[in-house]
Amino acid sequence: MDNKEQKLSLKREVGLAGAVSLIGGTMIGSGIFMSPQTVLYTIGSPGASLVVWACCGLLVILASFCYAELGTVIKESGGEYIYILRTSGPVVAFLLIFSSVLFVRPAGVVGISLSFAQYVVAPFYPDCAPPVILVKCVAATAILTLATVNCLNVRFSMSVQVFFMVAKVFALVVIIIGGMVMLARGHDENFKDSFANTNLGINSIGIAFYQGLWSYDGWNNLNYVTEELKRPEVNLPRAVVIAISLVTGLYLLVNVSYLTVMTPKELMSSNAVAVTWGNKVLGSWGWIMSVAAALSAFGSLNGTFFSGGRVCFVAAREGHMPDILSMAHVRRLTPSPALIFTTIISLVVLIPGDFQSIVNYFSFTAWFFYAITMCGLLYLKIKKPELPRPYKVPIILPILVLVAAVFLVLAPIIDNPQIEYLYVSLFIFSGILVYIPFIHFKLCPGLLTKLTLFLQLFLEVAPADKNL
Prior knowledge:
Blueprint: H1 16-27, H2 31-34, H3 36-43, H4 46-73, H5 80-88, H6 90-121, H7 132-152, H8 154-184, H9 202-216, H10 232-261, H11 264-269, H12 273-281, H13 287-317, E1 327-329, H14 336-350, H15 355-383, H16 396-415, H17 419-429, H18 431-440, H19 446-459, E2 461-463
Helix pairs in contact: 1-8, 1-10, 1-13, 3-4, 3-9, 4-9, 4-10, 4-16, 5-6, 5-15, 6-7, 6-13, 6-14, 6-15, 7-13, 7-14, 8-10, 8-13, 9-15, 9-16, 12-13, 13-14, 15-16
């Protein structure tokens, strides 16, 4: 008999098309259909709102270039968690994974699923707001459906991602063409004196950026699945450039179309801006935009699930989460325990979920850790210049992204302090109370070992090695 053990690892099944679809398909989700009205309301003028959307795109492009270098230097899955672990140490990395697993990732899933549900039920309640319980039930159904898809097969979930990427780009192109036709007919009154009443307060700018950047969320998703990407040193930078450039251009043109068709007042008062646009431009066919927005959010939710489960998986592999979450299904080679865990936490967060609050606190927490990640890249550039770098960015880029991230974290707090931001900060740092006894001193009860063994047999999973 052959005494060599057959190692279990996730397969490299994500090519360039899948990579572009994972980034672009996750970014183009609920945000572009839910956030434009909030950005406009917060910043105060159509011209300033377009500037915010353009600046958000520029910031994301710069940040993604920095992540592309990190992903080719540290060729492990896990995104900013693994980068912070390798540059800032286990304590800071655990604070990230603690807040990410229990809040940031589930909040992202819940925010997208709620917007998906809003668009699904919107055609049935044309003259009033739909019941909250109905919206949350539809959102829960979407979460459970995509959790099942991602647990079954990586290739199938990538096929779903590519399909919805094509569908949502088509929907945005329809909106853009409709707006261009209206603009060509002379409907440019909303762009006259377009910077009047602009709110230049630090808090207003910060919140507007939070809402805009929510629509760009997903730009770093490919870094979470580096070990499943074919030729990451080539495909990671290429996918980033293609996907984010495409999304930024589409977002700007879609916002121009919204402001061409609707007055600022109409846009700010709309609960589902794509449906309002569809009713005004497409008439009786306006319901198509509701379907398109729902499909877009569904595809984005799939991408969030695909990458989010990998964060738990990598953290468990590094000893920062229970061992069961570092295992993969023995036949399907998917990290099903991590995906199931993410699903359960998301359903719990969904119960009290409120879309706007989720966006603000999600963005605050996310950019706090993006700032730490940029510090890690600067450390590698200065202290470890000898490391092989298939892709390299000028040192000024991580400095610019770091300054922007610090502004986004501090701006809402300094200009308009709210007790909720203190709660979020305390929640992040409360992870130390978990780290010291359970991770540093390894005070794990024997019951956890028995539970791991039971779940391993029940879920048919086994430990998975790194795929480097």
